[in-house]
Amino acid sequence: MAKRSVWSRFASAAFGIRVALCLVLCAGFCLGFVGCTRKFFRQQADREVSAVLQEKDKYPAWKIEQYHVYPDPRARFADPTNPDRPPMPPDDPAAYDLSPNPQKPGKAGIGVAKGLGYLDLLAQWDEENRAALAAELASAPAALSPIAGDSGAPAMSDYSRIILSKDPKEGEPHAYILNLEQAAELGMINSREFQDRREDLYLTALPVTLERFAFSAQFFAAEQTLREWAGRETTGGNHNSWSFNSGTGFTKLFSTGALLLFQFANQTVVEMSRPVGVRATTSQSTLSLDLIQPLLRGGGRAVTLEPLTQAERNLFYQIRSYARFRKEFFVAIAGGGGGSISGGVFVPRNVIANPTFTPGSGFGSSGILPGQLPAVTTINEGLQERPGAAGRINLQAAIPAPVSGYLGTLLQFVQIDIDRANIANLQKFIRLFEGFKEGGDVSQLQVDQVEQQLLQGRSSLLTDEQQYLDSMDQFKLQLGLPTDTAVTIDERPMQPLIRQFRRFEQVLAEFDAVGKEAANFADPAQVGKFRSELTRLATTAPLVKGTSFPKKFPARWKVWSDLSADDLKKRLKDLTEERQKLLDKQIDLEKAGKPFPPADRQRLVELEYDIDLGSFEQSLRAYEGQPWKTENNPARQRQQQILSFRLVVNAFVLVMGEARAERIDQIRELWPKVPALLVDGKDLLEGDLDEAQALAGRTALANRLDLLNVRAQLVDAWRQIAVFANALLGTLNVEYHLTTQTPAGQAMPLDFSGSRTRHELALNTQLPLVRFSERNNYRASLIAYQRERRALMEAEDLALQSVRGEIRQLRVLAENYKIQQRQVELAYMTVENSLDVFQAPPAPPQPNAPPPDTAARAATLTQQLLNAQRSLPLAQNSLLTVWTNYVNARFQLYRDLELLPLDNRGVWIDEPPTSQPAANEPGRNADLDIQRTGVEFSLPGNQAGPLPGPGSPYHAFPPPKGQTLEPEN
Questions:
Q1: Cβ atoms 871, 827 nearer than 8 A
Q2: What is the pLDDT at residue 150?
Q3: Residue ranges per domain, the chain?
């Protein structure tokens, strides 16, 4: 009795230990269901994606640069919060009240992450730009030197001077000045579209990691704990037991389609209702091994590796698309040239569908046809996530992203200054006309006409200011800036053209000053000094500096001044007749389609100057004779004296026109040239058009990244034919099955023996009697292949069409640029000449001729002057528009030729890179301290400069050597 009691206590103790051990194992197993933390899985995915991208990043032509899947800490959308447990955003009150709210904010609270680093970056750039502009303004001479070889002094517009000198009032935002390079860099950091493309690259790499994992040994473990009690009157009688069912093993898919399944199962039962001395615990194990090799349907490397092959190739396509997007992004930021077929960007049709494949069983009948893009699927049959799909597509459709571009916005900016200059000229005309009205030379009608055009100019200024502000808001959206951010752009890209405008204006102002200074000697008492003063003025005036006029004028004038009155008159007559003969000859040659000889053209110019000089000498002699002294009436005497004096001054001004023409010729040589279109050392603007188009076509077909993707997708379509054809075959699988068990009814879970082992070899077949879905899929794959062939042809044709059209457009713009240069020159000259004619005295009445109609003359000259002034801003705007269109079209051509290398700021280098910059250089991270302001989190700025490098939580590449990312279990 004592022995049995001892044994009973020992058995009870052993049973308690086993039960405790099982409970501990069960608890550990249950905790395993929770798995590792969110951070562990996120970092694991980051590491695997980074490894895949580094593996694919082998080609310099589409090197992965400026990539980081986490937002830049300087970006507006920077998120310093815990990426795995972000704060709950403020909810819509109506949605919150009318729907369940199963989740609570938790420790993260409620708030919206908002980065402010871009404001610090804007402030830093603004300080640099203002300092540079102020230095240029301080060093600028009082007057620009328009002669050849000038130093290119800055010619800042009045609008820029206002912006530079304006200090923000208290409470007003500061206007940040931004140049083109900074805009491109800011867009790279702050653009939402750019960050979307980075994330697209990441999301395309995720399926690669999944498909690679499909060929790894995949382990599994399962445990079931069962507590069972039954009364004595139940079927089977009294029963009280604990059961532990365990299973573990792994599966392995091979590239041939073979599937290996190894499984170990154990069942341990502790029967607590048996009497003492009877075995209360049994443990039996089963080990099984299955190997299935499809020989027909679902078998072979072509079928088995197809999902992995397509995922790998899709990632490769996305890498090239990302590289091309970077160039498209710069073109859109710089010039506004967007991503459309008309802009030279071809988006290939994706007609290849990833096959739905179940290892070992061939294709399922999912109904996915080639030509349809399947949804993103996961192995989870329940909730499926499509990143970025919720609300984003509808929002983009409702509010499409506008494209303005730096140059387009700058064009609007400079047009404001042109409007201001036009208004300033019209205001001078108003004052001039009011003075003439007091003298009775013009009527109120002419004054009103000038004021009417002045009001039109002010209205145009208001419209252009509105268009500039609208364009600026669109440009801010491109850069990802809030539209209420006070930003203005640096006009220095337009300065070469603005400088030319200033040169013309300076020459004309100096020419006008010559006439005004000559008019200072209108006193009859200074008649004797007039010749010497005009000689001094003709040789020392600012207008003649840098010209040959001061050296030639005294000798040429002396020839005329030494002539007698009769000889002077005769020589003028001879020169006039010679000029008329040359003009007649020019007309006859033009009618015959023959060129006018250059020597004759030069002689015609010399004759014009000589005739003007002779007429001036004749007028001066008449003035020096003082014919008004014979007039007894003092009023008429004064009137004749003034008229004679004005005739001399006008004649002198015509003579000084030779110096003005020489200055204009010098300025004409300083027009900025359009940038060349160099491809393989050949300028596409020069030479035969067909040769230029052929060279550009060959370059585009060889280099275009989107074309390379389309060519590769044609191979995808060809490969899919065999894959879908495999599903038409019957099933012929060779299966091997092994099962071995431990003794039943015993507690010997590892006592395996060959005598308890069973081997099975099976050959499973199924005739292909029903293949309707598979047949349709196969037929669709043949059509998809043909479509892809046509898509490639279309892509190549569109690529050739775009570059050929861009070359023709650039040639036309280059020629129009030269035409518009002449238009601007003529506009300036027309305004000046119209003003001179308007201010010139009327010709003296001829004998026996009716008196001139002064009112009609004034009305005609007024319209002529106003029309000339109206043409000036139109010519200036046309020139700036042609220049902007040329630069933008050049951006687009080089983008479509894939000859647009970018530096680490995302700015076009405009020349072949001498060395490939190191991608993803390490950089410092920003201070990520969170400052709570209401319901927003503000992120301090990052003054480190470059983008965060490897090892940063904002970067997807692995950390450098010596640094690891510790997993959190």
A1: yes
A2: 43
A3: 491-672
